[in-house]
Amino acid sequence: AAMVQKYQSPVRVYKHPFELIMAAYERRFPTCPLIPMFVASDTVNEYKSEDEAIHVIERRCKLDIDAPRLLKKIAGVDYVYFVQKNSLNRRERTLHIEAYNETFSNRVIINEHCSYTVHPDNEDWTCFEQSASLDIKSFFGFESTVEKIAMKQYTSNIKKGKEIIEYYLKQLEEEGITFVPRWTPPVACKSESSTSHPRRPVSPAINIPESATKEGLNNKEILNSSSSPSEPTAGTPDDKLDADYIKRYLGDLTPMQESCLIRLRQWLQETHKGKIPKDEHILRFLRARDFNIDKAREILCQSLTWRKQHQVDYILDTWNPPQVLQDYYAGGWHHHDKDGRPLYVLRLGQMDTKGLVRALGEEALLRYVLSINEEGLRRCEENTKVFGRPISSWTCLVDLEGLNMRHLWRPGVKALLRIIEVVEANYPETLGRLLILRAPRVFPVLWTLVSPFIDDNTRKKFLIYAGNDYQGPGGLLDYIDKEIIPDFLGGECMCEVPEGGLVPKSLYRTAEELENEDIKLWTETIYQSASVFKGAPHEVLIQIVDASSVITWDFDVCKGDIVFNIFHSKRAPQPPKKDSLGAHSITSPGGNNVQLIDKVWQLGRDYSMVESPLICKEGESVQGSHVTRWPGFYILQWKFHSMPACATTNLPRVDDVLASLQVSSHKCKVMYYTEVIGSEDFRGSMTSLESSHSGFSQLSAATTSSSQSHSSSMISR
User: Fold this and answer.
1) Which of 13, 42, 465, 616 is the most buried (most CB within 10 A)?
2) CA neighbours closer than 13 Å in the CB half-sphere of residue 678
3) Global pTM?
4) What's the whole-number average pLDDT of the chain?
5) 664 CB contacts (<8 Å, ≥6 apart)?
């Protein structure tokens, strides 16, 4: 099977003018002592324009690849030849380099693009970028070996590229050359160019210049269809990461790790038109999956959908934790550890988890933990600025003094597991170290329950101390400065963290109250909540005046499985009768349930189905759109999805019988949001549905559509 490896560099900034960098670059040819494998190069083709502004040179380069002798013998070659074409435009001050392999070109395809351009904000600086792809079709059964060799050679060369330019710059300086004049047009045509400013839009002959792509989509389309991801696409330098920024804010990454970050980020910019996570957060997902870009993309997308669903981006600004939490949740931020990581202190043993769950429900507790994590991300950013080095995780100190059997109360443990699971999935690689202090005898029991839910990477960061061991050698002082050890651990620092204590029973709430409370928490958002019962779907009416409008929807199936339909009717349905809920109104106090389609209406006569039904499972998040063909009334319908009977036997299973006795099992819950976009807003092209339209929540996944069907629904689990 063919393997394709891609590489995309960050932007490397040289604080020297383009002309000087070119003088240094030229010295690499015909051979370069700093690249021992670069044995020779011959000029195959050369072109110079009359005014000498354009210089294109094509070379055939001979490389002595550092590969096992056996492999060279099997391949039957000693040297590998590459063709390198350099297009220098002195007027525009750009050099574009394209290289590909001539040897084995039917088995292995290597393409590389590099560019030297003027820094957009400083015309005396030069930017360098490179990208490459390696596609191994076949290699005598040694595909993966060849891939490893190629990647190794390539990454070591990437590192060398900068050294080489710096080496020749120094050489030039030693020879007294620190300035190379810019190109000026021949005197004859001086009049025409006296108005010229350093960076004019340029003829499209030379690759794709940056200045021309600032406007207009055409270039961008050319770009995407071409095989060269390295050409600067439209946009500001902020869209690109430069090497110095990575080192300062994100840390030391290998070239391939940088490449993964840049490619994943580029993909997000193209597909998620809303809010894109910060670079350090994207990097956490890559680290959590050992820089496997596909796996990282998958968990990151799930997390973005989750953030949108739960409006997590607004948590810190909009949500005020209930008083009970402020009084009884025994956790808080407390300075930082010796590595500069924010320190979170949790006195779990003093905390009445059962009381908190009973008084607040799981939902509010989870919300609170999320707000703590969001605050943690913010503090990491702050500490990165303060300490002058990348800090991407925090340290958590958990004091178990007082832990007892009460903490093993099942619903409490269940809540804890769910919280751990949500945090693991959405805040990967944020826990730098976990110090567990004063672990009592029941701790191993709790640990056995909890540890399977914790990622291996995370588990390595746990340090557990029984009794007073934390005061001894290898204890707390190795990780936290003496001055900030909290008073309750025998330190001198007053710790502001609440003491915890038992939550008074008078604050406990019934399950029903909590259920309604949950609904309240959700409906502060732009979403509406609806209940769907067996035999009682929920329907929403949308009246369309302008034939080619776009109906968009975005819903989450919170409970149960449902079928989603969209119908068209020429005549208006009767307004729903207030008592249409019938018996259900008793069982669902918070439920919003409306039927619009009259029982006597017939499908195909009174109304028609305009999209094929979509089955949506519990927990799914669905976004989609439908381009309307006719004016009139459209009805969106969420219907109970009845389970197919058990295939193996005709006898009803005990579970089924029990389920049918419980009314709640026939209740599904949907959170939905719909909006109609006028055709003028999306200018007849499906792609502009991707624009982050006012109503769509910020992280909505891009909505795509095929030309055959007028709709699309995207499901993410």
Assistant:
1) 616
2) 4
3) 0.64
4) 78
5) 587
